[in-house]
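Issue 218. Parser rejects a valid record. Input:
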Amino acid sequence: MGLMTRQNYLDSLDDGRKVLVDGKTVGDVRSHPALAPMVETVARIYDLHNDPAHANLMTFERSDGIVGSRFYKAPANREDLALRRQMTTRVLREICPTMDRFGDETVTALFTLVDRQDLLDRFDTRYARNAARWLDLLQRENLFMTSGNTDPKGDRSRQPFEQDDLDLNTRVVEERPDGVVLRGAKFETGAPYAHVAFIKPTVGNWSPQNADFAIACVVRLNAPGVRMICRLPQYHGGAANANRFEYPLTGGFDEVDTLIVFDDVFIPWEDVMFARQPELAALMRGELGRWAAQGYLTRCLAKADLLVGTALLVSEHSGTIKIPPVRSKISQLMMHRQAVEAFLLAAEAACEETPSGLAMPNQSIQNAGRIYCSQTYATMVQLLREIIGGQPVMLPGEAMLNSPETRDDVMKYFAGAGYDAPTRLRAMHLARELTASAYAGRTQSYQLFAETPIFAQENALFATYDREESMALARRMAGIEPAATAAPEAAPRLKVGHG
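Output the parser choked on:
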């Protein structure tokens, strides 16, 4: 087929998928007001892939001469890591810096599975082969792959096998010669306008009783038995109904979070990465984010850029940019932004070589970075609130700007510092969207939990940090002989790559 185009993408969504918004089945996701803006946004990403001005960054030439999407190229070296960062940055800058789910990082679990073929082959030689086949398909066709991470879980004090309703965690209910049957549900973003979802196991305790829940596979989102129940739109009736003057983010970029229900969905073996393998799930689950966190940090940097830019813009429009305390807060916001970039670039510069020879960001630095980003985004938003003051909660809308009865007052009292009212109001509505709207609340929650809860990120950092090296330094300074104490179990260290 070759790389998907805008029109290919739009046509592909007319595939019989089952999507529900406000309790009603959607006839066409391309035209429904809750979904159409994000369909158009994703179509613009396909435009970038097919635009010669962006081709060198968005695509690559494979060894067989086929041009593939760089979204789906496993990094072979540090240059590839840098190109992935630049590619994601290009999408965020060209389209919207607050987007979180468009396929570039959801695929990275497949990178890990292909990389760990040695481990997967010990359980079933089909598993790594299936992962490689899907990578090949995604590269060539550039399908939009989202993921499926979070189960409803039910009573979280109980294990999945202890739930009164076992469907509250996604599970295999039947294993057949030609595949497996899936039942349950996953929460995920962007599924109504994606093609496939990579389903990950999310259980922490991989006892034999939880074997049915140890499933990783690719699900086609128009498969029989799949239905997608969309959350409440942030704007009543759907984002397409929002006025873009007043809702510059909500109106175009309300990513739709969804409950994907699997009602006895058949998954052929060729789409199964592993099934009913609790030991393998325990070994692999913590590694599936090796490359995904690079995309997360790149998104965090784009959001931080927008926060800094909005703070500067609104302060310039109001004249407060001349006031030292305001400049101080803007500088603090800049400091947070620079710290995010430092984590991102440092993890890339100190990249590590994986068992199969791929290049991945330094895991310890990257894990520290994602903890920082998860913890500090709310702080950055609060700084922006303090910089812009209370005006975002008392802004007039576009109708008031255009009405003969209110226009003169709006034009007079919302102008200032050499800027007219329409210009200032556009900037202030953007600031409101980032600090005091449903969009802002959803973004802050997503930022906090998209990379798993902070305690899980902290566990990942503890596991990947070179603890023994730090302890050896402390022992030497304390005068303790190395043999005098037992070293803790250290996480396996991977080779650091510098090329």
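Fixed in the parser; the record now loads. The first helix runs from residue 6 to 12.
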